[in-house]
Amino acid sequence: MTPGIHSFPDYPAELELEADVCVIGGGAGGCATAAALAETGHSVLVLEEGRAWKPKDFRPIAPWAFKHLYAGHGTRATRGNCIIPLPGGRGLGGSTLINSAICFRTPPEVLESWRAKFGCVHFTDEWMGTCFDRVWRTLGVGVNPPSVQRKNNLIFKEGVEKLGWKGGAFMDRSAPGCNGCGVCQQGCPSGGKMSADRTFLAEAVARGTVGVYPECRVDGVRTEGRRIVEVGGRTIDPEGYRTAGHFRVRAKEFVLAAGSLGSPRFLLANGLSAGPVGTQLFIHPTSGVVARFPFPIEPWTGATQGYYVDRWQQGYLLQTFNMPLDQYYVALPLPPSLSLQYLSQIRDMASAGVVVHDEDSHGSVGEGTLTYHLGDQDRLRMLEGIRGCAEVFFAAGALEVAVGIQGAGLIHSPSEITKIVRDETPAWDMALYASHPMGTCRMGADPKDSVVNPEGRVWEWDNLSIADASIFPSSLGVNPQVTVMAVGLTVGRIVGQRL
Fold this sequence. Notes:
Blueprint: E1 4-5, E2 14-24, H1 28-38, E3 44-47, H2 62-69, E4 77-80, E5 83-85, H3 108-118, H4 125-139, H5 146-163, E6 168-170, H6 200-206, E7 210-213, E8 216-224, E9 227-236, E10 243-256, H7 259-269, E11 281-282, E12 286-292, E13 307-311, E14 316-320, H8 325-331, H9 336-343, E15 349-356, E16 362-365, E17 370-373, H10 376-395, E18 400-403, E19 410-411, H11 417-420, E20 438-439, E21 464-466, H12 481-498
Parallel strand pairs: 1-7, 2-3, 2-10, 3-7, 4-17, 10-21
Antiparallel strand pairs: 4-5, 6-13, 8-9, 9-10, 11-20, 12-15, 12-18, 13-14, 14-15, 16-17, 18-19
Helix pairs in contact: 1-6, 1-12, 4-12, 5-10
């Protein structure tokens, strides 16, 4: 292994590497794991299927972003009693390349349940507080000023305050240099967003003991007894996505950080666990609400998600959002002709949505399957949140509101909200979305109902750990990137101590 960040043109046809630890996956979990391991002085090798990007490389064009930055080119979706698009990032930085930089600390109630119900003894309030503080420092987390929030966020804030609701606040974001260009989901071209590759991974590489190898897809493993001794796979041409060569990596310890879809599929494809791999998928289902105002909003500008209303105890959050104009057209739950008419007035639109905890829904991941069924209580929470967003927009002066329910048309007054957004609305009539996959390789104290032990080590193997959102024993109810990084720091510290 050679320290530094490498790239596809430098790879020979047959690449053979060796390090103390091999981290498979360069997203939030993998980057934080590498940072923790680098502090121990051990040599660390990070493998990532996607490319290494710089801010100047990004283009604010949705098709370009889907091709280069999204897993499955942006076509990934769950199937069940509804169809839910489930995007994820592809490249060094993982989904932090394309997220809105939202930062929430893990709710204390969630950590307490992990310890009490699942024996996750390493995730103490004190230790996690240390991890959160480090994330805040490393990513420069803070609240962006009103000049960056702009009207889409400020108008929702105005509506919340006119209703006299509690719990409204600007969100902490890992975007200290945000200029409000509104293209977070296509990569941050200004460098204002601090993705995992530019923070934790950069810290790790700076120590001189970490080598990063993008465009490397891991396909298989070689084992001896209860140990993984080698992983192998293909180097990928980043333009044509064709196999260009092969590689092999030997290490003393291996850490899988391929995410809640990639990690279980890797275990299943290689027969590496007898536990409940791929079960208990959580995704935070969401639905959007768009409102038209009698004055300009310009929703394509400003922090893509800057303001929220805390309804965590009720099972959901309300969060503002914006997106590129073509994505508004695709997402609007209106007939095509009405969508075009509505889109022609996009300058006067504002948008927000509801993020549901995922408490009685259930999903799973297989080698070629991805299923999810929206539970009845989560469905009711979704509808309650949709009604809440509509109320806020009307309180702020909206002329009409479009909700994520097929056939609903436009809502023209607050009195119509409950008539149109009814509790009887079935899941298949909702326009849903999700971007926070969690679970599928549950952490726990009992190997019968978990995949990894409380240290993050896969039960059947002495030197294979997992450090990503797949080991969450439950849903968080908040955006997960900070918790994923805390998991990476925790597992990285434990693996480093084991060497």
